[in-house]
Amino acid sequence: MKKRHFWKTDIPEGAENPLSAAIVARDRNVVDMVAEAVKHDQTLLAYQPIVQSHSPETIAFYEGYIRVMDATGRIIPAREFMNVIEERELGRKLDCLALEQGLQVLQRNPNVRLSINMSARSIGYSQWLKVLERFLARDRFLGERLVLEITEASAMAAPELVIDFMDQMQQHGIAFALDNFGAGTTAIAHFRDFFFDAVKIDGQFVRGVHSNHDNQAVILALVAIAKQFDMFIVAESVERQEDADFLIEAGVDCLQGFLYGAPSITPPWQEEDGARARA
After folding, report:
1. Which helix (H) or strand (E) holds 232?
2. 274 in helix, strand or coil?
3. Using an 8 Å Cβ cutoff, are 228 and 199 in contact?
4. What does pTM read for this prediction?
5. Among residues 26, 86, 92, 173, which one has the fewest Cβ atoms lying within 10 Å of its Cβ?
6. How many angstroms separate the CA atoms of 163 and 90, rounded?
7. Per-position DSSP letters for 92-153, written without gaps between them
8. What pLDDT shows up at residue 7?
9. Which range has the worst mean pLDDT, 24-33, 147-156, 159-168, 204-213?
10. pLDDT value of residue 108
């Protein structure tokens, strides 16, 4: 008997693959859910602290993650939907909401520094730019407390557009961070052209690094590249003290992860202000 490949099915030619249909239906449901949340402004930011590596009780800045709420009020993390909507206009609208909410936080809290994620695709989206320009016109110093995070993959999809945009925005004091550093395909030559102030080492190399010699080598190489181009270095997904100890020794400037605090929809600086008031 001829042996069949395990991935073969008996679906007749021209018939719909049940797995493909299920994936399409799932993605359609995700898009519909996010579209409803955007339409009714059922979005909010969750905040996670980024601490100084040699003084972890000192917070360098916070990252603001966009969240959406479904029809039941359940909060959905961006990782559950972003890959589905990234290339749609819906992704641009969500970037607009994240930016607007982040800038509102900075406007209300002059001692807070905040990073907001964005796609390079939003650079050419007029509504997103109008949000940024509107807030910068209100407060010309606001940009000095804003960090815009662009993923490595997104930046490399349109490097010339990103470089031009960064050049324009840095006159406002806005800092830029290259997110997921090491996970993409950034050509080293582009580091001479980009204006990234910081890199965030991808969590896949950070988790368990204290006992993984391959990832240790990757981390040391990424740190060396970042230092060569005078970029500030943040390590993401730090969950264990042993990993933090290695990262500090390797020369990482800041640490981010559950070891120092999970993302919270309650602004951490409000809790800190309340604790000081009770002291």
Report:
1. strand 232-235
2. helix
3. no
4. 0.86
5. 26
6. 24
7. HHHHHHHHHHHHHHHHH-TT--EEEEE-GGGGG-HHHHHHHHHHHHH-TTGGGGEEEEEEHH
8. 44
9. 24-33
10. 96
